[in-house]
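tokens incoming
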């Protein structure tokens, strides 16, 4: 199955090359890389042109808008998502194909830290992964935009991303897809992401995501997400 990898990016010149190289190293003839440049003012777009099959300029700001634009540009039967400050594991595409070779509509996996302190990396590897597994078991998939893939037909069937959301568009999409088919949590589907948001403050990071999760769960809406570029 052809896999379209979509990467939304805004001012990611510091990280995006490592992200693209990790995908390029496992690319075959049935993989396309799409970068959605979300109105960057640095050299993000120029770097993306060196590696991506397609670089799309999207002037409407917002990660949900960028992810949806990537879906509309994708030609693969599978649409996979990661972020520009994230490095996927060497068998990422292989694991996506294995998970979606049958009846599963989508797959998601754990997110580890790329450059965190030891205690932060341990928390992401164990505590956060346990949180994802627990939520999956009780029927509340908590997919992360840094690490998930969905069959194209499933995204189309549920109407795509909710572009009105400022954040948690990934979780909200996962909940809708769960209503029409199976989502798999695959612990082997690993990515490593920048710890820069934690550098802006642990309490601030945890408070935002906790309140955002509850707001989506109880009210069906999300809070604004601050862009952090360190």
């Amino acid at each position: 199955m052809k896999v379209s990898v979509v990467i939304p990016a805004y001012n990611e010149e510091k990280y995006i090359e490592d992200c693209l190289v990790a995908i390029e190293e496992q690319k075959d003839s049935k993989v396309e890389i799409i970068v959605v440049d979300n109105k960057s003012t640095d050299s993000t777009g120029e770097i993306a042109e060196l590696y991506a099959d397609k670089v799309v300029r999207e002037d409407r700001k917002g990660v949900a808008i960028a992810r949806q634009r990537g879906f509309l540009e994708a030609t693969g039967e599978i649409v996979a998502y990661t972020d520009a400050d994230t490095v996927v594991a060497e068998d990422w595409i292989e694991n996506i194909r294995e998970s979606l070779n049958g009846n599963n509509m989508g797959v998601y996996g754990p997110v580890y830290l790329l450059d965190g302190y030891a205690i932060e990396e341990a928390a992401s590897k164990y505590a956060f992964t346990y949180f994802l597994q627990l939520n999956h078991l009780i029927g509340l998939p908590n997919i992360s935009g840094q690490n998930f893939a969905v069959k194209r037909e499933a995204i189309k069937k549920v109407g795509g991303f909710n572009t009105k959301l400022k954040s948690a568009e990934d979780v909200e999409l996962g909940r809708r897809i769960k209503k029409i088919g199976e989502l798999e949590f695959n612990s082997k589907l690993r990515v490593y992401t920048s710890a820069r948001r934690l550098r802006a403050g642990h309490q601030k990071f945890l408070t935002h995501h906790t309140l955002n999760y509850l707001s989506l769960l109880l009210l069906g809406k999300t809070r604004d997400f601050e862009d952090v570029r360190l």
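note: DSSP finds nine helices and ten strands in the chain.
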